[in-house]
Amino acid sequence: RKMWMQVSGWNLRYRFESGIKMRSKEMMLKEWFGKHREKEQGNKMTVKELFEKYCEKLGENEYVVHGACRKLCPATEEELEAFKKMCEEYHVEQRIMEELLDYYRQTNSFFGYHKCDDESLFEWWEDDEQRSIWLGNLNMDCFIYDDLDHKYGIGYAGGKELGAYDTVMEMLEAYLKEGYENGING
Questions:
Q1: pTM (predicted TM-score)
Q2: What is the greatest pairwise CA distance in the chain?
Q3: In terms of Cα–Cα distance, which of 137, 130, 132, 114 is closest to 122?
Q4: What is the C-alpha separation between 111 and 109, in angstroms, rounded?
Q5: CA distance 80 to 50
Q6: How far apart, in whole angstroms, are the C-alpha atoms of residue 161 and residue 156?
Q7: Which mean pLDDT values do the consecutive 10-residue runs of the chain (186 residues) have?
Q8: Residues linked to residue 89 through DSSP beta bridges, in sequence order
Q9: What is the pLDDT, as a whole number, of residue 6?
Q10: 152 with 168: CB under 8 angstroms?
Q11: Are 138 and 113 in contact (CB under 8 A)?
């Protein structure tokens, strides 16, 4: 027989066959919420955890990323304050500013390119045609946040030809994973 249960808008279906001990509703809810929490926390890895997962470690906070050696070094409080001021000056959404501040607290550049207090970050923030934060480059790949479509992107000269992402960490993970899968992060 089948049993249906409504939990937070999700339909959970369990099939009970003869010989299988029936689980309590509490046990089923605990299992479902545990899996759901794991899925949500999957995107909550730190920058260092992503580098540890996908890149060869060379030394203390040093990793091979797409054939280049990169060191993770957090921004100072003064650099973070300078970044906040630039974000306010350019009217960057609060959510994006907080997300990037969290990133820069862990490492102060995108693969050794612009530090968070570098005015060049906003070089491509011009008008209603283009409003991008230029996070950095590695090889020929550019990393941006596009304020017009509210997406992070990897592409050529500020485009998103290689991928568009909702968060900076999704973009970072996709890039590191691609390097890992192609054998160029080690």
A1: 0.74
A2: 68
A3: 132
A4: 6
A5: 22
A6: 7
A7: 38 38 50 49 80 94 92 96 97 96 94 91 88 90 93 86 92 94 88
A8: none
A9: 39
A10: yes
A11: yes
**What's the pLDDT at 25?**
52
> Phi and psi for 153 in degrees, rounded to 5?
-150, 155
Tokens representing 106 are 């862990």
Q: Count other Cβ atoms within 10 Å, centred on residue 134.
A: 21
Query: What CA–CA distance (Å, rounded) separates 120 from 68?
Result: 22
- Rounded to 5 degrees, φ, ψ at 125 are -100, 90
167: which 2 tokens? Answer: 């968060």
Structure tokens at 128: 């209603």
Q: Residue 77 has what pLDDT?
A: 98
Give the start-end residues of each E strand in the chain.
2-7, 10-15, 56-59, 62-65, 68-71, 132-138, 141-146, 151-155, 163-165
* Measured distance CA(125)–CA(15) in Å, rounded: 55
**Residue whose pair of structure tokens reads 């299992």 in the numeric block:** 31
